[in-house]
Amino acid sequence: xxxxxxxxxxxxxxxxxxxxxxxxxxxxxxxxxxxxxxxxxxxxxxxxxxxxxxxxxxxxxxxxxxxxxxxxxxxxxxxxxxxxxxxxxxxxxxxxxxxxxxxxxxxxxxxxxxxxxxxxxxxxxxxxxxxxxxxxxxxxxxxxxxxxxxxxxxxxxxxxxxxxxxxxxxxxxxxxxxxxxxxxxxxxxxxxxxxxxxxxxxxxxxxxxxxxxxxxxxxxxxxxxxxxxxxxxxxxxxxxxxxxxxxxxxxxxxxxxxxxxxxxxxxxxxxxxxxxxxxxxxxxxxxxxxxxxxxxxxxxxxxxxxxxxxxxxxxxxxxxxxxxxxxxxxxxxxxxxxxxxxxxxxxxxxxxxxxxxxxxxxxxxxxxxxxxxxxxxxxxxxxxxxxxxxxxxxxxxxxxxxxxx
Length: 405
Ligand SMILES: Cc1cc2nc3c(=O)[nH]c(=O)nc-3n(C[C@H](O)[C@H](O)[C@H](O)COP(=O)(O)OP(=O)(O)OC[C@H]3O[C@@H](n4cnc5c(N)ncnc54)[C@H](O)[C@@H]3O)c2cc1C
Hints:
Layout: E1 3-12, H1 16-27, E2 32-36, E3 49-50, H2 52-60, H3 64-67, E4 73-75, E5 77-82, E6 85-91, E7 102-104, H4 107-118, E8 124-128, E9 131-138, E10 141-149, E11 152-163, H5 170-174, E12 179-182, E13 186-194, E14 205-208, E15 211-217, E16 221-229, H6 233-239, H7 241-251, E17 269-272, E18 275-278, E19 282-283, E20 286-288, H8 303-322, H9 329-358, H10 371-378, H11 384-391
Parallel strand pairs: 1-2, 1-11, 2-8, 5-14, 11-20
Antiparallel strand pairs: 3-7, 4-7, 5-6, 9-10, 10-11, 12-18, 13-16, 13-17, 14-15, 15-16, 19-20
Bound molecules: flavin-adenine dinucleotide.
The site of flavin-adenine dinucleotide has 39 residues, from helix 1, strand 2, strand 9, strand 13 and helix 8.
């Protein structure tokens, strides 16, 4: 017999969307249970970017000062190395936000910070190693979830189920929500190489003849994302590790003395990149947010920000009603209505980046600088546009859901 629980809101997934939604709803006094299938937050596929708009939100929540005491790097200008030439891409110093930088912090630290604060609210529960495996229904209404736990099966009934379980969402699949796929021509090979004190400062990425290497500074090592054409991993493996090491060095020569650390393919993980979006983000009793509603590519490094903005809109629009009872499907549609066009816009930008910048339709000449980058180099004022798009995004959300009495 499955153990049974009842609550007001259950959230599947403890990523940026799920933990932020859980925090905000609990802060508003809504009883909420977040279910995360892993035992901890330590997973490498996640980006490390905390955007100026998220930092603004931390300020609005009164958490900024403490947050900035966590180990992080502050990046005020994004630079890319394109065909060997360093180009400033985004200048965050003119943004109309308190923090005029992107904070790079391992995402597990960010999620631990936020969930620790969420646990201060009596109506918040986070259950790790709880994997949602199915939904329960009463006719057309979604009434709860079934989860696999270390103690056996658990069934939780709730007035609202939020799917925040990422791009391989079981919630959207079980709810039968229709998904539109937008073709993505790339995948990412994800690995780590040690870092030395005199290494150059973090750049957005190294572009070369239509290929891209991203290096994220994680203190004592570089998290490396090597962008490859979709489906090419087997071919790359056939060419051998030595060739792969050489490829990395051709982008970032300073790694030459340690690229041999990549001495086994088990150290290199293939991450398949997707861009898709649900036609309807909700149905009676259920709402999907973050990558579960719209899987984002790493292009532009904006997926985390978007997931958090969804969570804020969800709390702003639903928390007041959820405190006292269920919400209607019309209430849920308001979240989609608010967040859909910013998502469409960003996904369109990601598709553009894949086609024109990453897969090299722009230029295959080794020494050339595509026009858009030449303009960014010549006219510093233009760097404020990508900074705004990446750092704040279209339609930034501000916290205004009620606080618990
Ligand atoms: C290689 C790569 C690099 C990226 N880099 C960046 C970047 O630098 N900056 C950026 O802004 N974006 C980046 N993105 C995009 C970003 O990772 C996503 O847009 C963002 O993580 C979405 O947040 P989320 O909370 O919706 O989903 P996720 O971060 O995917 O979180 C979902 C959570 O749900 C859990 N879960 C899944 N299934 C279940 C289940 N059945 N039951 C319970 N829990 C479950 C997962 O374990 C996970 O913790 C990157 C994406 C990729 C693929």
